[in-house]
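Q: Structure tokens for this one, please.
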Amino acid sequence: MLQPLRLSSFQRLALCTTASTYLLILVGGLVRASGAGLGCPDWPRCFGSWIPPASVAELPLQFDRSLFNPTLMWTEHLNRLLGVTVGFLILAAVVSALRHHRREPRILWATIAATSLTGFQGWLGGCVVASQLAAWIVTVHMIFALVIVQLLLYATVRSFRREGGLPSPFFISLIVVTMIQIGLGTQVRGAIDVAIDSGLARASALSSVGPLDHIHRTAALVVFVGSILILMWLRARFPKERTLVRWAAVVTGLSALQVALGASMAYVSLAPATQVGHLTVASLLLGAETILLLLAKTEPSQSPTPVRHASTVG
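A: Here is the predicted structure, written as tokens:
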């Protein structure tokens, strides 16, 4: 009878922290899609208070009354509270790593780096508000959130497995292209917001973005084709590495879903739900690619399946 997998305290905490960080990215996408980014026009407080005001009558005199929208305010405030919670979880992961993995520097330093970047990410959040949601700062904010997730995934996977295995340039290249593609997508989204704010109809906003959107779409197709090629390569050369093949299939599936959601936004609707789904799938795709890379580096290396050549008749 198989014994259930028993997780260490660090592994449980690392998994919980990683999942919470993904939830934060999802909520961040909801904030962006709903236009709640300036629901609290100041930072780190909200309308000058640590607890959001209950009504417009409670606003300090220096704030414009027209900015008060309870729905957008609480959406942004809850996003900030979740960010603080994730920050404390990452800090707890560092403490746990110091206790249980102090002799494994890669795990320890990955969690320390994630903690440091979380502090920097909080400062960037303030810059996003101060800049009135400038597209390039929003993009940097998003990229650092994804880097934090990758560091947490690295520490989590390394706590389960040791160094292996397979060559990884293909996996690294796929991650790099995906990161670029996500950054381009954030820029496209910023350009759409600018077009809508200038009076252009939402249905026509995407067509005003220009070459940036075409590059973004091309990068998405490159990621999709690359994921298919990696899946085919693993199935052909390393059929016994079932975990790798399964994760490659997950990457391919998420990539296909990402392309489908992008096409829906381009040709059907720019609905907020589709935007949130597009961003969430993008972050999950990058995470799955990172896990695939880490598994390739830690999976016990096996000899590839030999390729049979037809014998020649002399």
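A few notes: Confidence is low (pLDDT under 50) at residues 300-314. The radius of gyration is 22 Å.
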